[in-house]
Write a structure and sequence with these properties.
heterodimer, A: OB fold (Dihydrolipoamide Acetyltransferase, E2P), 2 domains, 11 strands, 37% strand, rod-shaped, B: 255 residues, alpha+beta, SH3 type barrels, 5 helices, 32% strand, BirA family biotin operon repressor/biotin-[acetyl-CoA-carboxylase] ligase (chain B), EC 6.3.4.15 (chain B), aa-tRNA-synth_II/BPL/LPL (chain B), ligase (chain B), Biotin_CoA_COase_ligase (chain B)
Chain lengths: 157, 255
């Protein structure tokens, strides 16, 4: 591969959003890794080819390797928690004699009321902002909750 | 019924009158759920509320056609969920301002939002919000005010007419109109970011503030003095030189 071609390839990679590219052909092994803003180029053991008979077929970008690993837990990435937006008392139903808004294993949709938080005699229906299945209820009925305290675990639909 | 033209920007411009209904707050919630034709400032009013609600599990009873029982829909999107006590202060003062046009003194807000004349309850407020994330979506302000009712099944309740001994019954529509104007005025004050002035007025009109009285905590009687509220609306009571802040169910007045 000509230096010019390699330069072209590197320019292409530099302008892409890829953080890491590995290309391997019979005549070339190219590994590019981006650290912050400046790309660091590493050319490994490229055998010298005097006269390349045909243009290398592997000038296209390598299969897009996953970009920087996403900072997320390895397991259960489809699970999210519904948190309390305020300090107050957590209620699972509209009234002492009413059924619970949600049960474990039941599907909920965006906009569905999942609980009530009361503070100073003001009552707040907490609407779900996601759709999915209730996996866990983390707080006992009629007990105090803190700001941002997780209330439910939901498996995303 | 209730053909009123309050001098407001948006409050009470649309009035839904139901001769009978279970709870105006529930009707308001249904209207919000249906998501069509909801206007900020919309009022749902009835002459006969058959299943009026107070706080969780409590009932609000009122004689048919004698009192005001209605709900007002507001959209205080400018408030975070954690700031909602500001709304409570604005509404409580709105009710108080309206009644002060008929009663000169001894009219107070019993924390957090009951309306008292001396040691008797004249009205109650039930605020129910829908929260979307950390913001308030809609707010349903349920207000029950005893106006013309002459006798009550409990000793600690009274009405405007009982207090003023007015020979004639009050015109409910006129009081409603006045009330909506007062509530909107205070609501706009918090919307414009002037909560502090309202908070000071709320405190100076707070039932039993700066007086020594009996309270109950976990069933235990103690003597204390209300000294104020914190930013979440918790009630501060000083007892034996110590100040403790209480949530709604954590302390009980002994009246």
């Amino acid at each position: 591969m000509e230096n010019k071609e390699i330069q072209k390839l590197l320019d292409f990679i530099a302008q892409s959003t890829l953080d890491e590219v590995n290309i391997e052909t019979s005549e070339l092994k190219l590994s590019v890794k981006r650290y912050g803003a400046a790309p660091v180029i590493q050319q490994v053991a490229a055998p010298q080819v005097v006269a390349a008979p045909v243009a290398s077929p592997a000038t296209t970008a390598a299969p897009a390797a996953p970009a920087t690993p996403v900072a997320a837990p390895v397991v259960a990435t489809n699970r999210v928690t519904i948190k309390s937006p305020m300090i107050g008392t957590f209620y699972r139903s509209a009234g002492p004699d009413s059924p619970s808004f949600v049960e474990i294993g039941k599907e909920i949709t965006k906009g569905k009321t999942v609980c009530i938080i009361e503070a100073m005699k003001l009552f707040n229906e907490i609407e779900s902002e996601i759709s999915g299945k209730i996996i866990e209820v983390l707080v006992e009925n009629a007990t105090p909750v803190e700001y941002d305290q997780p209330l439910f675990v939901v498996e995303l639909a | 019924m209730y053909k009123i033209q309050p001098n407001t920007l948006f409050t009470g411009k649309t009035i839904k009158y139901l001769p009978v209904c279970h709870s105006t707050n529930d009707i308001a919630a249904e209207i919000i759920q249906s998501d069509t034709n909801v206007f900020e400032g919309m009022v749902i009013i009835t002459d006969n509320q058959t299943a009026g609600r107070g706080q969780r599990g409590n009932v609000w009873e009122a004689s048919v056609g004698e009192n005001l029982t209605f709900s007002l829909i507001l959209k205080p999107n400018f408030l975070k969920a954690s700031e909602q006590f500001k709304l409570n202060v604005a509404v409580s003062l709105g009710v108080l301002d309206c009644l002060s046009e008929y009663i000169d003194e001894d009219l107070k807000v019993k924390w957090s939002n009951d309306i008292y004349f001396q040691n008797q309850k004249m009205g109650g407020i039930l605020i129910e919000n829908t929260l979307q994330g950390y913001q308030i979506g809609y707010s349903i302000i349920g207000i029950g005010l005893n106006i013309n009712q002459a006798s009550f099944p409990v000793p600690n309740a009274t009405s405007l007419r009982n207090v003023t001994k007015n020979p004639l019954k009050y015109d409910l529509a006129m009081i409603l109109s006045n009330l909506l104007e007062c509530v909107e005025k205070n609501y706009l004050t918090i919307k414009n970011g002037n909560y502090e002035t309202l908070k000071n007025r709320y405190l100076s009109n707070l039932f039993r503030i700066e007086e020594f009285h009996h309270f109950r905590k976990n069933g235990q009687l103690f003597v204390g003095k209300i000294i104020g509220i914190d930013e979440t609306g918790q009630l501060g009571i000083e007892s034996d030189g110590l100040i403790e802040y209480f949530g709604f169910k954590e302390v009980e007045f002994v009246i």
